Amino acid sequence: MRKFAVVGYLGVFVLIAMLVYAQQDKSKRPSPPGSATVTFSTGKKITIDYSRPKVADPKTGATRKIFGGVVPYGQVWRTGANEATTFVTDGDVMVNDLHVPAGKYTMFSIPGENEWTIVISKATGEWGTQYDEKQDLGRTKVKAGKTSSAVPQFTITLNKTGDKKADMVFEWESTKVTTPITAH
What we know:
Helix content: 10-25%
Radius of gyration: 20 Å
Largest sheet: 9 strands, antiparallel
Order of helices and strands: HEEEEEEEEE
Distance between the termini: 70 Å
Strand content: over 45%
Number of strands: 9
Shape: globular
Strand order of the largest sheet: 1-2-3-6-7-8-9-4-5
Oligomer: single chain
Low-confidence stretches: 12-22
């Protein structure tokens, strides 16, 4: 009898361990992880880690209206899904007209039809939109435009445009937001 109890406990332990591992394997999430990186000629690097939600509803597969729907206009958004998006720079940069010293930050945004506000927060480690305006390092406004074709999954890219310049680009559904970044 004792032998069966040990085997039973061992089986439960293995099952729990497998469930914990599955939860930690972020690639299995409906909104899997994504990352964007750029390295400037100075050797300084920016890395953005985020999650990539899809236009298709993860439960039904139905096409959703994203901006002005799932992601309301005029409200703080985590700029992705799951954990809040991180913005890490190992050198001082300008994000549009906002000075961002070297460090690790959380990046939020406030989408609008024609203009977005990019928010760099000093707080880190948030889940979702656990946002506290008092933690803002700062904000900058950028224009929103349209993509040339539908983008089914949220994507952030960092496109190098010069020795010390890059564009941070958000694309999803039919929306495209480009923010210039300059390294110091």
